[in-house]
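Example 4.3 (complexes with small molecules)
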Amino acid sequence: MIYLDNAATTPLDERVLEKMMPFLTGLCGNAGTAYGPGRDARNALERARGQVAALCGVRPEEILFTSGGTESDNQALRMGLKASGRRGIIVSAIEHPAVLRTAESLQKEGARLTVLPVNSEGFVEPETLKNALSGDTGIVSIMTANNEIGTIQPIRELADLTHAAGALFHTDAVQAFGQIPVNVDDLGADLLSASAHKLYGPKGVGMLYVRRGIPLMPLITGGGQERGRRSGTENIPGIVGFGEACRLAAEEMEARNAAKSALQELFFDRLLSENPHAILNGGRSNRLPGNVNISLPGASGETMLILLDQKGICASSGSACATGSVEPSHVLLALGRSAFEAKGSLRLTFSEHNTAEEVHLVCDVIREEAARLRAMSLPYEEYCRAGK
Ligand code: PLP
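Answer. The structure with pyridoxal-5'-phosphate bound is encoded below.
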């Protein structure tokens, strides 16, 4: 099997599992209890909080553990808007559904929603945000890096503009955290979401960074865990795994990215040079090292995924959450791609464990299968005739 879908999820690192095992197999106490196993759980919880905080340069008490990126995004938007005391919410058109659907749901409840367009390379222009901000804007949410096209946004500039308008700035860093340096102070974010399963940690655990002094209400109420901001017995094995995954990411990030960048360049060079009418989706620079997203109009992404799967290659077309739906990706449409171009997209997100041999093999398969599909596609013939 060749796994090229690391933006959907990453495999659990064995070193992470090793740290989790004592809390999965032995007696893992409830961190809210005062006896030995409870104290052990609390100590492990706080140690992990320190590891997560260290990866983004914040104080441990500013980290709030959640069930993952989706929950973090929901709490940030819902409670951030409430804390701001204002009505306006601004998001970009290429946000993950965890942000987009939440913002739309807030709009139905009375919020004033503005969705910012991106330029043809997939970046939010600071000027566009500046023009959209008003005295009524309560919160702005723009992702650090996009899950489909890997574009890394100019977060610092966007956060500064937001603060100048007196609003809170949230960034969904789920795809960036553990992949590229994410320092909250450098970014200027007030709220930041991350998820463990994107950096070789376990699924079902994430975090929300909340800048000290922001009166953020809980989304989930109950026993008052996480200092009243997120109730529910803490997922100690998951949190311990998240902490270790962060520690390893900090240590290995540079080496991982050097390997990924080399493979990325190889992918781009081959895919763009040997497939006619291949379109690179998203800018080539300011992009996550493991992300390749191309459109091969006339070669349906959904069909390509099945053909690749038959050869043991795991990839994606659009985001994982959109797979199975026939709708073209909202991200690619936002870049200005036609529905035909967007439906011919493939996303390959690889890791440092992939090899150049695998890249060559996958490029061979894509070239052959895309040519076969295109030879049978009337719309592709018309597309070529139209001189695209
Ligand atoms: N935000 C982004 C940018 C993502 O890529 C994802 C997952 O794919 C999420 C949020 C949701 O995170 P989780 O799977 O932890 O709920």
